Predict the 3D structure of the following.
Amino acid sequence: MTGPFVLTLSCPDRIGIVHAVSGFLASRDCNIVDSHQFGDRDNRQFFMRVAFEAGAPTDVETLRTEFAPVGQDAAMEWSIYDTRDRCRVLVMVSRYDHCLNDLLYRTGSGALPIDITSIGSNHTDLAAIAHHHDVPFHHVPVTPATRGDAEARLLEIVDAEQVELVVLARYMQVLSDATCVELSGRAINIHHSFLPGFKGAKPYHQAHDRGVKLIGATAHYVTSELDEGPIIEQEVARVDHSIDVDELIAVGRDLECQALSRAVRWHAERRVLLNGSRTIVFR
């Protein structure tokens, strides 16, 4: 057996899609080891993720070439991946280190199937963490006058390092519309998600002042609409009157780490498919 490989697809829903996929795999002596599918009745779209092993020696490029006619016949948007090729990730940070530390730990322990190619930041505060983990660090300062140049440098890093996913791990800069389009479907952001919502400075202080009972965090794909991209994962925790601001911040940071790491893992494992302004997550 070679692989495992993962096939993901979305297309207009119709009879025979599963048969076409399974027939293709069977004809090539492939064994399905995991399969998920979903038909969205609202927009009549079909989504599928299949993990499989090939009985005869093959490679991902051969499989892509051979599957192309099947995909074209059903008007599919599809991809085939070799799971041995780990997702290449650029992590962008500012001054908060909790999400970065969590991603580095999970990657080093094998919990995340990714390779962190480098860390980028508009500050130098977290350079020591990058050096400690022997990960290249890019200082890309950002001012209103240099924002365009900074984003151009970010995209240069993405191209040079063959980055597949950009993770904004508390990167406190708003990306331009053009950069959001360039990174569409391959940039994930994390932010606090209080009920009710608090925007602006010191959201945890605002939440404490209002006596919230539920706090959370949201991991989503980056779009030009600030913090409004397709949601991949959310995490929440209940709090009460006894918790102070520092404790609230600590709880919130844990939630951010949990939601972000799951979103990154699911993306890296090709479990997330875009469905307009929503996502399909095959866990």
Summary: The chain has a mean pLDDT of 95. DSSP finds eight helices and 13 strands in the chain.
